[in-house]
Amino acid sequence: MSANNPYLDxxxxxxxxxxxxxxxxxxxxxxxxxxxxLINGLGMGLAAAxxxxxxxxxxxxxxxxxxxxxxxxxxIVVIATFVTVIEMLxxxxxxxxxxxxxxxxPLIVVNCVILGRAEAFASKKPVLRSxxxxxxxxxxxxxALGILALVREVFGHGTIMGPGPDSAILLFGEGFEPMALFxxxxxxxxxxxxxxxxxxxxxxxxxIK
Amino acid sequence: MVxxxxxxxxxxxxxxxxxxxxxxxxxxxxxxxxAALMAVLLFGYRALLTIIIGVFSAMLAEAIWRxxxxxxxxxxxxxxxxxxALILPAAVPWWVVVIGSFSAIxxxxxxxxxxxxxxxxxxxxxxxxxVVSWGGHMAGDIWxxxxxxxxxxxxxxxxxxxxxxxxxxAVTFSLxxxxxxxxxxxxxxxxxxxxxxxxxxxxxxxxxxxRIPGGFIGTVFILGLLFGGGFYANNLMTGLFHVVAGGxxxxxxxxxxxxxxxxxxxxxxxxxxxxxxxITMLIRLWGTLPEGVTFGILLMNAVTPIxxxxxxxxxxxxxxxxx
Amino acid sequence: MRxxxxxxxxxxxxxxxxxxxLTGVYNVTEPVIREREExxxxxxxxxxxxxxxxxxxxxxxxxxxxxxxxxxGEKLGVMATVKTQGYDGTIxxxxxxxxxxxxxxxxxxxxxxxxxxxxxxTTDNFQEQFIGKSFEDPIEPGxxxxxxxxxxxxxGAMISSIRRALNTVGENFLxxxxxxxxxxxxxxxxxxxxxxxxxxxxxxxxxxxxxxxQTIEIIEHNETEAYFVDAYPEIPQRIIEEQKxxxxxxxxxxxxxxxxxxxxxxxxxxAPEGENGGGDN
Amino acid sequence: MAEPSFKGGVHPAYNKxxxxxxxxxxxxxPQKVVVPMQQHIGAPCxxxxxxxxxxxxxxxxxxxxxxxxxxxxxxPVHAPISGTVVDIGPYNHPLGxxxxxxxxxxxxxxxxxxxxxxxxxxxxLSVDEIRKIxxxxxxxxxxxxxxxxxxxxxxxxxxxxxxxxxxxxECEPYLTADHRVMLEKAEEIIFGLRVMMKALGASEGIIGxxxxxxxxxxxxxxxxxxxxxxxxFSLPTKYPQGAEKMLIYVATGRVVPAGALPMxxxxxxxxxxxxxxxxxxxxxxxxxxxxxLTVTGSGINQPANLLVRLGTLVxxxxxxxGGISESTLKLVVGGPMMGLAQPTADIPVIKGTSGILALTDxxxxxxxxxxxxxxxxxxxxxxxxxxxxxxxxxxxxxxxKRAEELxxxxxxxxxxxxxxxxxxxxxxxxxxxGKNEIMKRKNK
Lengths: 209, 323, 281, 444
Hints:
Number of domains of chain B: 1
Strand order of the largest sheet of chain B: 1-2
Oligomer: heterotetramer
Number of helices of chain D: 15
Number of strands of chain B: 2
Strand order of the largest sheet of chain D: 1-14-13-17-15-16
Strand content of chain D: 15-25%
Structural class of chain D: alpha/beta
CATH architecture of chain B: Orthogonal Bundle
Largest sheet of chain D: 6 strands, mixed
């Protein structure tokens, strides 16, 4: 990878090499919880990404101001603030998505991806790089949730862009009997496991470390 | 003196029994033959179809995964496929069988590392996935009723509740009838007789340890006798009823004795069998499901390593370590 | 000491900044949310009662009931806004009931049930089983509606609160009354009745003599003991005191209480078992 | 009544028919012999000073002592033939390494030492004299274990021995040497047993014969009928019946504690060949310089039971038996279950060599091993009640502590587990690695 351009490196690292879901297995709670439908998965991913980017920037800019002894509480406050902001914004302007994501939006606070980036990256690196890193990791998270949600929706419901009759596209026609397992939480584990296996095979094949 | 060629130097022993995984699996297939035959006699051509599809697609799944052209290979896939087919209802659509077989082989076995490494009984994993995904096709409380010697009849049409789900129905069948298998249920589980014949053959061949089916069936019998609800003629018969009704026989003889996912120590095997029986009866008598064999075995599969660890036999001439 | 002060001030500053930001966002989004909720509610009203002209609001037991009228002032039905305790937090939903005391629509407004499990209450499949159910229907799990296994608490809460709201609407706004169970002319004797509980049957033996229920005894039950003590012996006592089956069952153990009542009802609907009871007590 | 039996064990194809009816043939004197300084368990022999000094060209007579060690657990080695020492130095050994050995070229005369004479009547010999004779004769356990016999005849004072068992089980497939010895030298066996009983002060003697050798058993039964305190015992045919702990358990019902010797329970056992060797040492004064062994296997052209001078090269023995066929895959010294596969035939016959097998693909089952399917056949076949698959797995993963917890050290490598394993896993090999590693760590 282009080691000579740190920004490009920051961006690509979060998406591929250190994908929080497929490579680091972080933030599993929403990954397993809200990936029943593609739209929910993407929504969750974007919500988390927004919080991540905002908190990364704020923490990076405050890093010289915050004493190390209280950095974790400060990070949590910052993250929780942005989560609450996102939650209110969603409730106001994206009520359907807000309904679908339910309890998982407040749970972004304890998503270890975000605190992890704050601790490991934003609190040490300049603002701009933290921003790029936030974008990269956020995209990686969204991508992973999207892929998992797509798999689960296609096999578990036979639709894309569900739920609901308005937006859902029936992929296989009315006669298709979806594999209900993938729609259920237990199926999320199995689907994630299979996807992890596949990504490992792909990464090995292309020798990405 | 001249010695042609190279002498092989390897560790003793230098002779080995001719028994191989393939021969063991073939023996298991032979042991399952009476049950499969009974299934076809009772449930007609749909049973035959389900069995053939199950066996073939399981072997196919294994061959594809291992990228080997050898379809039969060590025979374990065929056993898994046959077992899966025998615990499905007769009227199940063909594609459900295929997906079940693929799930059993790939999710139940190969992702763990293939033969020898699976934690759970692959056939039961396949069935569990099917039940969760297509509960409607997997019967549940309502199962196809048998129609002995009517090969052409469509098992999908005539259905009845399993004897375990309905006490009213249970008393309409006599114990001998249930022993022979002329009751609603999945393909291979109804005929205790056929399963027993195969089981005796397997014990004779030394492939299964009597402790597991013995512990399993014995526990089911005793718990049924003590807590069976007494709705049958007497407690003894209620105990027997719980043994011959439902999946206890096929579970105890063929599923709970699956080599890989069960303990290797003699005491551990007894504990395993008893544990399966206890969980099965807990679910049957006090749970919300009519049948508990699948979960009984799967749950005990999960604790197999622990059982093994706590039941290491004392060596010959060994004294108690703590003493 | 100075260190502690510095740390505290830092934390306080961060918190103040956070609070300020939140207040700002709240001020922006709050009206939007409230407006949207009101709009949604009005839309729902219009959807269920197309001829709506006006409505008046009444509050009973913490639930809100909007009586809907058309232009002529004719009553169209009632829109109930019900709150109930689900598995995890409060479930709020609208229940549209027409003048025949039939449910014509359910709309979950807000809930925090577990996605993928408890949120089954928002699905059409779950809600449709209530549509058309009326005041007369039992709305009893296992009889005419289903509890979803895996989401027992969420769906159970919905079922019992729907029954409660429907009763309230029927009795308070639609002048409906439950048919009292008549048992004055029954033969003397011991009656036995059984209902299926969650974990097994519940059997009662009722002694009926001289036109009155004399005793009610629980022969067998498989209820959760902790709940059951709330219902027994209180419910049988009330039935004997009031000599009717329509007793208030709002105890800490609604389900057990209801089961006792229906078992007694089952018993009295059957034939007496003879003068001296079943004989195997 | 059910036959007494031990737990586990296997029933391999015995393949004894080829040689069980062939009388012992005395092999002609070899042209040369190689006498390794270690042919027993215990301290290796040191070359005697006079042999070492003269080195090559030194004339020796049959029965002349070549090496000895002052240690108690050791046994001297003797020259099996008369002739000239042509070489002293490391030579191939059946154990798979080179061990210091004396090579003697035969002079063809087979002259014996002058002191080779009867020791006198048994009644006149004291216990100590018997022990000394046995030790000086270099007699070791001829069943294969090669434990010095005099050690077993000298139990500590606090461990009284009341039973002596003569091991005629010969449970290893293919081998028939002990069978033939029992048939042809029965009287000497019984005399040997008497000697042992006297040396140990034991009150009872048992001759155990596996019941697949009915002729030997009947002969023994008839011969001991008049003998006091001695009985013949019919053992069930099951491998490893001849393992001492199994033998003692079946014949006496006594369980030898794990990690202990049979004398712990008042029992000593000896192989039939050892009994004969002791008899010859007493009656003729001959040290242990020859033994009976079985040459068989489908790669051998003329299977035979041979009386061979120790030190004879295996290649010479094979040649005497008509050579081995081209399809021979394995050359094994000992039985097929516990014997050692050899890379070459250029090795001497030593005291523990009970057989030489040339195995072709008719006998050897060659298959790649597949993963363990946890069928537990190894667990149920293990006579020591161990969990071979778990021990092997622990050893394979380098978890030697775990292997030790699973009683790896109690394994005596009988091979039942490897034999029975349907996955063809070399369990014994892994366990052996584990045992070595555990011992290494213990000795640190």
